[in-house]
Amino acid sequence: MRLFLIRHAHALDHANDAERPLSERGQNITRQTAEFFKANGRLRPAQVWHSPLQRAFETAADLVTRLDPDIPLVETDGLLPFDDPQIMAERFRLYPTSHDVAVVGHQPHLSALASLLVAGRSDPTLFHFKKNAVLALRRSEDNFADTGLARWRVGWHFSPEFLPGFE
After folding, report:
1. How far apart are CA 45 and CA 99, in angstroms?
2. Residue 149 gets which letter from DSSP?
3. Of 72, 79, 90, 126, which alpha carbon lies 20 to 30 A from 49's?
4. What global pTM score does this model have?
């Protein structure tokens, strides 16, 4: 199983944080990111899970529209910025290993989650996610002895600075 952790794109300021839509810049970078991955085939999840916040949903929807409109979008609890990463780690432990999944979420949650999956602890964080960054992880055959959680290995890390013409 591969897991793709994706930080949402740049969003506009808004009085209600949950309703912050993507900015034009965020939409453009998400489009370029999706085109990059569609061309190279490195991001092919069976499902895309996203937090209930507007900016995560829009990022997920824009990616799916360009990658493959048949990929299901799933609003998922446990992906808010300050949620306990243990919730998602346990969910991944139970998820079928035959399906790849992408998760669109927020900082600091994604950094804590990636650290927990790779190192067995969420603090200190070992990763930093820029907006539109993607971290590809592969589930290994072994578990952490102290928690029983699946151990994950880093496959690659994409940052939008890799895109041609990124400013």
Report:
1. 7
2. P
3. 126
4. 0.96
For residue 33, report the phi and psi dihedrals to the nearest 5 degrees: -65, -45
Indicate if the pLDDT at residue 167 is higher than 70.
no
Q: Virtual CA dihedral for 85, 100, 47, 60, nearest 10 degrees? A: 60
- Chain CA centroid to CA 88, Å: 12
d(CA 49, CA 76): 6
Residue whose pair of structure tokens reads 């990022």 in the numeric block: 59
Predicted local distance difference test score (pLDDT) of residue 84: 98
How far, in Å, CA of 151 to CA of 119, rounded? Answer: 8
The answer to whether residues 134 and 29 touch, using CB atoms and an 8 Å cutoff, is: no
Cα–Cα distance measured from residue 77 to residue 137, given in angstroms and rounded to the nearest whole number:
21
DSSP-based three-state secondary structure for 61: helix
